[in-house]
Amino acid sequence: MTTYPKQFRADAVCWVLTCAAVLLLTGCRFANNTSRGVDYYGQAKYDAAMTAFQEALKAKPNDPEMEYNIAATYHQSGRLSLQSGQHAAAQQQYDQAVQYYRLCLAKKPNHSDAHRGLAALYLDCKSPQEAFQVMTDWVKADPVSSEPKIELARLYQEYSQICQLQGRTDTAADLRSAADVTLQNVLSAEPSNYRALRAAGYLKEQSGDRSAAAAYYQRSLQSNSAQKDLELRIASLGQP
Predict the structure, then answer these.
(1) What's the pLDDT score for residue 45?
(2) Residue 122 host element (H or E)
(3) Which helix (H) or strand (E) holds 27?
(4) What's the whole-model pTM score?
(5) Beta strands of the chain (E only): which ranges?
(6) CA-CA distances (angstroms) from residue 152 to 136, 148, 186, 200?
(7) Which 3-state string (H, E, C) describes 171-230?
(8) Which of 38, 89, 172, 226 could be a cystine partner for 164, CB 3.0 to 4.6 Å?
(9) pLDDT given at position 2
(10) Which residues have C-beta within 8 Å of that of residue 103, sequence separation ≥ 6?
């Protein structure tokens, strides 16, 4: 067995302890800035949230969750800028959001919130084709998982509401039908998938079929009893 001079071993121990201290400080800085960023985001203080999240990312570079947080913050800032008529600022913020959503997905390809956020951003920018491309690419990349299919169905449903408000009733009906087919495909393979059941219930509720909506919600609640909000929704719809 190789032996080392005592001084070398002592130095090695000191070096290890120093590294551990740096890692501990880095971890604390990451956690503190993350917590501050989340608090600021919840208060709609997006500039302060961005500063905190960027500091957290410096402490833990290339962290996909932090890249998602930054993307979501740029996204919300862009929405506010757009609402206030600051179109140039909104475009810059949306561009940054796209960049960070993509960075997150490059490291964590099945990050549901990043896919959802990116698709929603494209809808904000009136680019539905790009929004659907995000989801269909995800479905193709992970054909076994139900998650991308459920999110695709949700996008169909959300865009159907936009089309309905625009008076494009035939397109809205087609989109609702596509959402229903997608969810039924999931449920044929996973009859107890509570997220698919919940999404199917919401789709029926939006179409005015209260009885079918309540039935789907009931099945979803049976699969996952932690969804306490569904109890109230079922009560408001009436028992199936």
Answers:
(1) 92
(2) helix 112-124
(3) helix 6-42
(4) 0.81
(5) none
(6) 7, 6, 11, 13
(7) HHHHHHHHHHHHHHHHHHHCCCCHHHHHHHHHHHHHCCCHHHHHHHHHHHHHHCCCCHHH
(8) 172
(9) 40
(10) 62, 64, 67, 71
Predicted pLDDT at 36: 85
Model confidence over 8-59: pLDDT tens digits?
333 434 344 443 443 344 446 667 778 888 888 899 899 999 999 999 898 8
| C-alpha span between 37 and 34 (Å, rounded) | 5
Residue 239 carries which DSSP code?
A: -
**Those residues with Cβ within 8 angstroms of residue 234's Cβ, 6 or more apart along the chain or in another chain:** 214, 217, 218, 221
Q: What is the DSSP letter of 167?
A: T
Give the pLDDT of residue 68: 93
Query: Is there a contact between 186 and 149 (Cβ–Cβ < 8 Å)?
Result: yes
Query: Whose CA is closest to 121, among 89, 88, 95, 84?
Result: 95
What stretches in the chain show pLDDT beneath 70?
Answer: 1-30, 239-240
Q: Tell me if residue 63 falls in helix, strand or coil.
A: coil
In eight-state DSSP terms, residue 166 is: T
CA dist 113 and 134 (Å) reads: 12
Structure tokens, 154: 């949700």
pLDDT at 22: 38
Is-contact 195 203, C-beta < 8 A? no
Contacts of 54 (CB under 8 A, 6+ apart): 70
CA atoms within 13 A of residue 225's CA, in its CB half-sphere: 0
* Structural contact between residues 159 and 131, judged by C-beta atoms closer than 8 angstroms: yes
Walk me through the domains of the chain, giving residue ranges and CATH numbers: 21-139 (1.25.40.10), 144-240 (1.25.40.10)
